[in-house]
Amino acid sequence: MPEKQVYLFGTCLIDVFYPAVGLDAISLLELCGYHVIFPQTQTCCGQPPYNSGHTEPATDVARQTISTFSAKDIPLIVPSASCAGMIKYHYPSLFPENSKEHHQAKALSTRTFELIDFLVDRLPFDKQAENTACKVSLHTSCCAQREMNVAHTWQAILGKLNNIEVHLPVQADECCGFGGTFAIKSPAISAVMTQDKCQHLLKSEPDAIVSGDSGCLMNIGEHLKFEGKNEHCLHLASFIAQRFGLSHAK
Fold first, then answer.
1. Quick check: is 250 in a domain?
2. CB within 8 A of 187, min separation 6: which ones?
3. Are residues 111 and 208 in the same domain?
4. What is the pLDDT along the chain (250 residues), one digit of tens a residue?
5. In this structure, what CATH number is given to the domain that contains residue 220?
6. End of a domain among 89, 119, 149?
7. What are residue 146's phi and psi, to 5 degrees?
8. In 10 A of CB 203, how many CB atoms?
9. Domain that holds residue 88
10. Does residue 51 sit in helix, strand or coil?
11. pTM for the model
Protein backbone atom coordinates (compact mmCIF):
# COMPACT_ATOMS: atom_id res chain seq x y z
CA MET A 1 0.00 0.00 0.00
CA PRO A 2 1.41 3.47 -0.92
CA GLU A 3 2.57 5.61 1.99
CA LYS A 4 0.05 8.27 3.02
CA GLN A 5 1.64 11.71 2.78
CA VAL A 6 0.62 15.26 3.67
CA TYR A 7 2.27 18.65 3.52
CA LEU A 8 2.30 20.82 6.65
CA PHE A 9 2.16 24.60 6.35
CA GLY A 10 3.77 25.87 9.55
CA THR A 11 2.44 29.49 9.65
CA CYS A 12 4.56 32.45 10.75
CA LEU A 13 3.26 32.60 14.32
CA ILE A 14 3.88 28.91 14.94
CA ASP A 15 7.33 29.11 13.37
CA VAL A 16 8.39 32.13 15.43
CA PHE A 17 6.38 31.97 18.66
CA TYR A 18 4.81 28.51 19.02
CA PRO A 19 7.16 25.92 17.46
CA ALA A 20 5.86 23.21 19.82
CA VAL A 21 2.44 23.53 18.13
CA GLY A 22 4.01 22.60 14.80
CA LEU A 23 5.71 19.59 16.37
CA ASP A 24 2.43 18.56 18.02
CA ALA A 25 0.62 18.86 14.69
CA ILE A 26 3.22 16.54 13.14
CA SER A 27 2.84 14.06 16.02
CA LEU A 28 -0.94 13.95 15.59
CA LEU A 29 -0.71 13.49 11.83
CA GLU A 30 1.84 10.72 12.30
CA LEU A 31 -0.47 9.11 14.86
CA CYS A 32 -3.08 9.00 12.09
CA GLY A 33 -0.61 7.18 9.84
CA TYR A 34 0.63 10.07 7.70
CA HIS A 35 4.17 10.91 6.68
CA VAL A 36 4.50 14.68 7.07
CA ILE A 37 6.47 16.70 4.52
CA PHE A 38 7.59 20.14 5.71
CA PRO A 39 9.28 22.06 2.88
CA GLN A 40 11.91 24.45 4.20
CA THR A 41 11.18 26.95 1.42
CA GLN A 42 7.72 27.81 2.80
CA THR A 43 7.14 31.33 4.09
CA CYS A 44 4.14 33.42 5.22
CA CYS A 45 0.71 32.80 3.67
CA GLY A 46 0.64 36.47 2.57
CA GLN A 47 -2.35 37.51 4.62
CA PRO A 48 -0.77 40.61 6.28
CA PRO A 49 -0.07 42.44 2.98
CA TYR A 50 -3.33 41.12 1.48
CA ASN A 51 -5.43 42.47 4.35
CA SER A 52 -3.62 45.81 4.08
CA GLY A 53 -4.43 46.19 0.39
CA HIS A 54 -0.93 45.41 -0.88
CA THR A 55 -1.92 43.01 -3.62
CA GLU A 56 1.42 42.76 -5.42
CA PRO A 57 3.51 41.44 -2.48
CA ALA A 58 0.61 39.20 -1.44
CA THR A 59 0.57 37.72 -4.93
CA ASP A 60 4.33 37.14 -4.80
CA VAL A 61 3.92 35.22 -1.54
CA ALA A 62 1.02 33.23 -2.97
CA ARG A 63 3.08 32.32 -6.02
CA GLN A 64 5.91 31.08 -3.77
CA THR A 65 3.52 29.05 -1.61
CA ILE A 66 1.80 27.46 -4.60
CA SER A 67 5.17 26.46 -6.05
CA THR A 68 6.34 25.04 -2.72
CA PHE A 69 3.31 22.82 -2.20
CA SER A 70 2.64 21.65 -5.75
CA ALA A 71 5.42 19.11 -6.23
CA LYS A 72 3.11 16.40 -4.90
CA ASP A 73 -0.67 16.06 -5.28
CA ILE A 74 -1.29 15.51 -1.57
CA PRO A 75 -3.26 17.35 1.16
CA LEU A 76 -1.89 20.60 2.56
CA ILE A 77 -2.62 20.73 6.29
CA VAL A 78 -2.71 24.12 8.03
CA PRO A 79 -2.89 24.47 11.85
CA SER A 80 -4.69 27.82 11.53
CA ALA A 81 -8.14 28.53 10.12
CA SER A 82 -6.97 32.03 9.23
CA CYS A 83 -4.01 30.93 7.10
CA ALA A 84 -5.96 28.02 5.65
CA GLY A 85 -8.68 30.45 4.57
CA MET A 86 -6.14 32.70 2.87
CA ILE A 87 -4.74 29.82 0.81
CA LYS A 88 -8.07 28.13 0.11
CA TYR A 89 -10.30 31.09 -0.70
CA HIS A 90 -8.13 34.12 -1.50
CA TYR A 91 -5.20 32.77 -3.52
CA PRO A 92 -7.35 32.08 -6.62
CA SER A 93 -8.59 35.70 -6.58
CA LEU A 94 -5.05 37.02 -6.88
CA PHE A 95 -4.53 35.70 -10.41
CA PRO A 96 -6.39 36.41 -13.68
CA GLU A 97 -9.27 34.04 -14.45
CA ASN A 98 -8.25 31.10 -16.66
CA SER A 99 -4.54 31.85 -16.25
CA LYS A 100 -2.17 28.99 -15.45
CA GLU A 101 -1.49 30.47 -12.02
CA HIS A 102 -5.23 30.76 -11.30
CA HIS A 103 -5.70 27.07 -12.08
CA GLN A 104 -2.70 26.19 -9.91
CA ALA A 105 -4.17 28.24 -7.05
CA LYS A 106 -7.54 26.49 -7.47
CA ALA A 107 -5.84 23.10 -7.46
CA LEU A 108 -4.03 23.91 -4.21
CA SER A 109 -7.29 25.23 -2.76
CA THR A 110 -8.98 21.85 -3.19
CA ARG A 111 -6.12 20.19 -1.31
CA THR A 112 -6.02 22.63 1.61
CA PHE A 113 -7.44 21.58 4.99
CA GLU A 114 -7.48 23.10 8.46
CA LEU A 115 -5.68 20.76 10.86
CA ILE A 116 -8.43 19.98 13.40
CA ASP A 117 -11.04 19.47 10.69
CA PHE A 118 -8.67 17.02 9.01
CA LEU A 119 -8.00 15.11 12.23
CA VAL A 120 -11.50 14.86 13.68
CA ASP A 121 -12.47 11.66 11.83
CA ARG A 122 -8.97 10.19 11.64
CA LEU A 123 -7.52 10.17 15.16
CA PRO A 124 -7.51 6.82 17.01
CA PHE A 125 -9.40 8.08 20.06
CA ASP A 126 -9.12 4.66 21.71
CA LYS A 127 -5.37 5.29 22.10
CA GLN A 128 -5.72 8.24 24.47
CA ALA A 129 -3.43 8.27 27.50
CA GLU A 130 -4.75 8.17 31.06
CA ASN A 131 -5.79 11.76 31.78
CA THR A 132 -7.29 13.61 34.71
CA ALA A 133 -10.53 15.52 34.30
CA CYS A 134 -10.08 18.92 32.68
CA LYS A 135 -12.33 21.91 32.08
CA VAL A 136 -11.60 23.99 28.98
CA SER A 137 -12.97 27.20 27.56
CA LEU A 138 -13.01 27.08 23.75
CA HIS A 139 -12.42 30.17 21.63
CA THR A 140 -13.61 29.63 18.06
CA SER A 141 -11.89 32.16 15.81
CA CYS A 142 -13.67 34.32 13.25
CA CYS A 143 -12.11 32.43 10.34
CA ALA A 144 -12.99 29.08 11.88
CA GLN A 145 -16.60 30.17 12.15
CA ARG A 146 -17.19 32.11 8.97
CA GLU A 147 -14.57 31.32 6.36
CA MET A 148 -13.36 27.75 6.90
CA ASN A 149 -16.57 26.70 8.69
CA VAL A 150 -14.69 24.38 11.05
CA ALA A 151 -15.74 25.73 14.46
CA HIS A 152 -18.15 22.83 14.90
CA THR A 153 -15.33 20.33 14.35
CA TRP A 154 -13.27 22.03 17.06
CA GLN A 155 -16.15 21.33 19.44
CA ALA A 156 -16.63 17.83 18.03
CA ILE A 157 -13.02 16.78 18.54
CA LEU A 158 -13.04 17.98 22.14
CA GLY A 159 -16.20 15.96 22.65
CA LYS A 160 -14.31 12.81 21.61
CA LEU A 161 -11.60 13.29 24.24
CA ASN A 162 -11.84 11.58 27.62
CA ASN A 163 -12.59 13.52 30.83
CA ILE A 164 -13.10 16.89 29.13
CA GLU A 165 -15.69 19.47 30.11
CA VAL A 166 -16.05 22.04 27.32
CA HIS A 167 -17.44 25.54 27.80
CA LEU A 168 -18.23 28.07 25.10
CA PRO A 169 -18.09 31.69 26.25
CA VAL A 170 -21.01 34.08 26.09
CA GLN A 171 -21.05 35.78 22.67
CA ALA A 172 -18.83 33.03 21.31
CA ASP A 173 -19.27 34.30 17.75
CA GLU A 174 -17.62 37.65 18.48
CA CYS A 175 -14.01 38.47 17.53
CA CYS A 176 -11.28 38.39 20.18
CA GLY A 177 -10.01 41.74 18.90
CA PHE A 178 -6.93 40.47 17.09
CA GLY A 179 -8.08 40.43 13.49
CA GLY A 180 -4.53 40.46 12.15
CA THR A 181 -3.71 44.03 11.08
CA PHE A 182 -6.94 45.27 12.72
CA ALA A 183 -5.25 45.13 16.14
CA ILE A 184 -2.50 47.41 14.80
CA LYS A 185 -4.76 49.83 12.93
CA SER A 186 -7.38 50.16 15.69
CA PRO A 187 -5.57 49.31 18.94
CA ALA A 188 -8.05 51.02 21.31
CA ILE A 189 -11.06 49.19 19.88
CA SER A 190 -9.08 45.94 19.73
CA ALA A 191 -8.09 46.21 23.41
CA VAL A 192 -11.71 46.61 24.55
CA MET A 193 -12.82 43.66 22.42
CA THR A 194 -10.02 41.52 23.85
CA GLN A 195 -10.88 42.46 27.42
CA ASP A 196 -14.52 41.46 26.85
CA LYS A 197 -13.50 38.17 25.25
CA CYS A 198 -11.14 37.32 28.10
CA GLN A 199 -13.81 37.99 30.72
CA HIS A 200 -16.23 35.69 28.91
CA LEU A 201 -13.63 32.94 28.48
CA LEU A 202 -12.69 33.02 32.17
CA LYS A 203 -16.24 33.00 33.50
CA SER A 204 -16.39 29.19 33.59
CA GLU A 205 -13.09 29.10 35.56
CA PRO A 206 -11.39 26.77 33.07
CA ASP A 207 -8.17 24.86 33.53
CA ALA A 208 -7.16 25.99 30.05
CA ILE A 209 -8.26 28.25 27.22
CA VAL A 210 -7.94 26.50 23.86
CA SER A 211 -8.24 27.56 20.24
CA GLY A 212 -7.06 26.47 16.81
CA ASP A 213 -5.61 29.85 15.80
CA SER A 214 -2.31 31.04 17.26
CA GLY A 215 -3.07 34.70 16.52
CA CYS A 216 -6.10 34.62 18.80
CA LEU A 217 -4.19 32.71 21.48
CA MET A 218 -1.34 35.21 21.40
CA ASN A 219 -3.76 38.11 21.67
CA ILE A 220 -5.79 36.55 24.50
CA GLY A 221 -2.82 35.13 26.37
CA GLU A 222 -0.76 38.32 26.33
CA HIS A 223 -3.77 40.39 27.40
CA LEU A 224 -4.27 38.09 30.39
CA LYS A 225 -0.58 38.42 31.28
CA PHE A 226 -0.95 42.21 31.06
CA GLU A 227 -3.78 41.93 33.58
CA GLY A 228 -1.59 39.83 35.87
CA LYS A 229 -3.39 36.57 35.16
CA ASN A 230 -1.38 33.48 34.35
CA GLU A 231 -4.05 31.47 32.54
CA HIS A 232 -3.01 28.44 30.49
CA CYS A 233 -3.66 29.13 26.78
CA LEU A 234 -3.08 26.23 24.40
CA HIS A 235 -3.45 25.57 20.70
CA LEU A 236 -5.86 22.71 20.10
CA ALA A 237 -3.07 20.69 18.48
CA SER A 238 -1.03 20.84 21.69
CA PHE A 239 -4.01 20.20 23.93
CA ILE A 240 -5.07 17.14 21.90
CA ALA A 241 -1.47 15.89 21.74
CA GLN A 242 -1.33 16.08 25.54
CA ARG A 243 -4.37 13.80 25.78
CA PHE A 244 -2.50 11.23 23.69
CA GLY A 245 0.73 11.67 25.67
CA LEU A 246 2.52 13.24 22.72
CA SER A 247 2.76 16.96 23.42
CA HIS A 248 5.92 19.03 23.02
CA ALA A 249 4.29 22.05 24.69
CA LYS A 250 5.47 23.06 28.14
1. no
2. none
3. no
4. 457 999 999 999 999 999 999 999 999 999 999 999 999 999 999 999 999 999 999 999 999 999 999 999 999 999 999 999 999 999 999 999 999 999 999 999 999 999 999 999 999 999 999 989 999 999 999 999 999 999 999 999 999 999 999 999 999 999 999 988 888 889 999 999 999 999 999 999 999 999 999 999 999 999 999 999 988 999 999 999 999 999 887 6
5. 3.40.50.11810
6. 119
7. -110, -25
8. 12
9. 5-119
10. helix
11. 0.95
